[in-house]
Amino acid sequence: FLASLARDGDFETITTMVIRMVVIVAVIAGSRKASLWLYETTLRALFPTAYIAVSDPSYLWVMAWMAQDPSAQKQITDFQLSTEEWRQVRKSSASALRRSAETNKGGTVQNSSPSVGEQNASWAEGDIIGQIIPTYRYSIRLRHEGKYLWVKRRMSSFARSRLRTVDHIQIRTLFWQKDVLKRFLVAAHQSYFAKEDRELLIFNANRIVAKWQSPVSRPVRPWSSVILPDNMKEDLITDIGKFLSDKEVQWYAARGIPHRRGYLFHGTPGSGKTTLATAIASKLRLDIYVVNPSQRGMDDAKLSKLFRDCPARSVILIEDIDCIFPRNRGRNNVTLDGSDGEPTSSTTEGFDDIPNEPPVTPMFGGKHDLAPSTVTLSGLLNAIDGVSSQEGCILIASTNHPERLDPALSRAGRFDVHLAFFHASRAQARALFLHFYPLEDF
User: Fold this and answer.
1) Is the pLDDT of residue 429 over 60?
2) Exposed (0-12), middle (13-18) or buried (19+): which is 95, by Cβ within 10 Å?
3) Are 205 and 79 in contact, with CB atoms under 8 Å apart?
4) By CB distance 3.0 to 4.6 Å, which of 59, 142, 221, 264 could disulfide with 278?
């Protein structure tokens, strides 16, 4: 048709038709974009949404919440079993897969009224604990504080780059209750890190990246089990309690002083330094963050980030701090004497059984193995009380040889209180014996 018009020389008609086609295409494209914009705007207005990437720790909070919610479990038909992270959770939940003590040969739980987790237990051998979580695209309705939320796992181009897909979840609610999103995430966080009355959470640093691993739990150390001379124990807990009080926090803030306090425990090996640190955390219900500056792969930047990521009202523990910088080496760099890259002296006194990241197997002659620590004295000092250092934490370091510490490290301001530990006296030994073997047991 256009060709015939061109042969007839009717260019005016051709121009008019082309303009009309361009206008129609533009109108269609504009209408499509406008309708899409209107749809997205309306959707955002009516259904406030939170997006959480799988790499964010809060992803685990929500997954654990759904694994513990009986209502959510009833909605899940096709599911994914996750055991990797669940092994780090302190206690099994209603949806944890576990083998009951009473199982038949087929592994079916023999219980007249089993819980959600028991209904799903089907292993005849061994103990398996895991999370039942929904598969992708299925929306799970949750009820929190009497309000509804819809959670959906998605695999899409969540990042700017469309070359890789990112696993994430979206949490939606209704526009008149948008505040419930934040309250739900707070509740999920509190539930994930909820502690039993007789439970102590211990965090260790990841060996590959500068972040804290999921915590492991240990029974609390009874305060009465720590026997120290005179009023040493009571004076110490009073001092720490005063430091953590709101009045003290306001006093520091009003004067522009960083809210930090450090304690250096020094003395003979096996005299109770780590035990006291554990008892303090148990008594005050604080979490322990174990820092090992001499571990492989550690450097000043990672150490500083680990310190910054420690939440307020927690205990930062550095054991055998004198072993970080051997005396026969320069103080500017950490060099390790062991043939395997670890210090020749023991760097742990009470947390040897805490699992850490699995060791990295060297490939092609150790090419991909972690390098020895390069933490410097300056880096350690800045991590403890630098400009960007964390505040509100209790820093506890232990050493068997305080004379080996650099004065810049042991001075007041970094370690304000020095406590000397000795072998148990006769009175202490008697008190310890009576604690573990009370007369009423005989």
Assistant:
1) yes
2) buried
3) no
4) 221
